[in-house]
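Attaching the record inline, Q. Sequence:
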Amino acid sequence: MTNGINYAIIAAGDGSRLVAEGIKTPKPLIEVNGESLLQRLIRIFTTNKAQSISIIINDYMTEVEDYLRSSQHSVPVNVIVKSTPSSMHSFFELSKILGEGKFCLTTVDTIFPEDEFSGYINNFIENDSLSGSFAITDFIEDESPLYVGVDDNMEITGFFDKAPQNAKFVSGGIYCLDNSCFELLTESVNSGKARMRNFQRALIENNYKIKGYPFSKIVDVDHASDIESADRFLKSCMK
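Structure, as predicted:
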């Protein structure tokens, strides 16, 4: 049983929808409830048994790179500067520096209740029988949600682009795994797979035991209107 966990943040997207709506700040530096998205995740991870934090940004986010290089952190923070064609490819680049043991991966714009996140991380760290634990939620407002099938024991049975009958959960975009998945990740990249959801499907197809961990609500910041919504959500979590 490990006492800590490595974290990884995918922040290599171009935030094209935000840019189209007039938001000039790079997505990782957008502020929600008084913190940038990136700063918030680093703070939360640091207080949840982080052994290291690895971050990938694209090669034209100079403001983000400057911010990371100039910031002081209480745990090792590793930065990869590289543009990639998909989140799965960003994950592949991060896998090269994540090291041994368990890790938690998320995109930079994932907004969630901090207390629920702490329970999620502790549950995964303390349960060595699991290959993985993925955050799921029955709060559905994403434009293209990834539906998640689970059995009576909350073990994930499949990932679906369209809602299957009696679908209750969608992916929250937070993934806890251990480094045993890296070989399959490499195979997925080399075989031409694209998108993180196709790697998730490959995990189930290869009999990885992954459980869903329910969160009350998880939201992403994809549009300008999402910034205010996320701000209200986080303020409500503090009451």
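Residues 148 and 159 are 5 Å apart (CA to CA). The first helix runs from residue 16 to 20.

More tomorrow.
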